[in-house]
Amino acid sequence: QAVVTQEPSLTVSPGGTVTLTCGSSTGAVTSGHYPYWFQQKPGQAPRTLIYDTSGKHSWTPARFSGSLLGAKAALTLSGARPEDEAEYYCLLAYSDGRVFGGGTKLTVL
Amino acid sequence: EEQLVESGGGLVKPGGSLRLSCAASGITFNRYNIHWVRQAPGKGLEWVSSITSDSNYITYRDSVKGRFTISRDNVKNSVSLQMNSLRAEDAAVYYCATFSTVSDYWGQGTLVTVSS
User: Fold this and answer.
1) What is the DSSP letter of B55?
2) For A97, which of B50, B97, B109 is closest by C-beta distance?
């Protein structure tokens, strides 16, 4: 199965903007991979932020947005807040199943 | 209350078996695909297996194919994961979840420990 890659860690200043990316070992990430982005805080189950590249749930803060950026899926956080400090995982769908990326630990500092 | 509740985790010896269950309440269970996702202590999320709402399409990660079996009962609103020939690398918290364009429910997880 494919390998999905994410930045291991990123740091953003409060109020700043940061982009997390999600790549695939099989080539360009497309909408056909139905990229999901999950946020997980310590001791909690994950929660979906973005589905199908850019879809948002009612609980997704407006400061989060999803897109395709070049050959990757991307999660952009604009106006970071301290409570956004968490681990972020992307998930891609393939014909034989799904694969999570290794996660990005986002520090707001 | 809308929730998924896992059970069945525990300590098992390498080569042993466990059956995890996921019970749904407060949701229209038969509409949703269900996924099992695991997380080893201090590690990232790993997708394990998925089953469609009608059980017609089932997928597994390569490392569990032939050892794990997912199934569901839409009358009992439950999903099971039968895990055989367990290995040390299968040790993790196992979550059942449904995530889609219209849903996002996760259980609290059940811990599987594989050790002699």
Assistant:
1) S
2) B50
Residue B32, chain A, CB below 8 Å: the answer is: no
- Supply the pLDDT for residue B112: 98
Residue A32 CB contacts under 8 Å (≥ 6 apart), including other chains = A93
Query: Chain B residues with CB inside 8 Å of A38's CB?
Result: 45, 99
Q: How many residues does chain B have?
A: 116
Beta-carbon separation of B95 and A103 below 8 A: no
Contact B47 A102 (CB under 8 A): no
User: Distances in Å between the alpha carbon of A105 and those of A3, A9, A41, A48?
Assistant: 18, 5, 10, 16
Residue of A35, A70, A94, A6 whose CA lies nearest to B44? A6
Computed from CA positions of residues B58, B61, B65, B69, in that sequence, does the dihedral angle turn out positive or negative? negative
Chain A closest-CA separation from residue B2 CA (Å): 15
How does pLDDT run across B83-109, given as a tens digit for each residue? Answer: 999 999 999 999 999 998 888 999 999
* pLDDT tens over chain A, length 109 residues: 899 999 999 999 999 999 999 999 999 999 999 999 999 999 999 999 999 999 999 999 999 999 999 999 999 999 999 999 999 999 999 999 999 999 999 999 9
Query: Would an 8 Å CB–CB cutoff place B61 in contact with chain A?
Result: yes
Q: Does residue B1 have a pLDDT over 90?
A: no
Chain A nearest CA to B46, separation (Å): 6
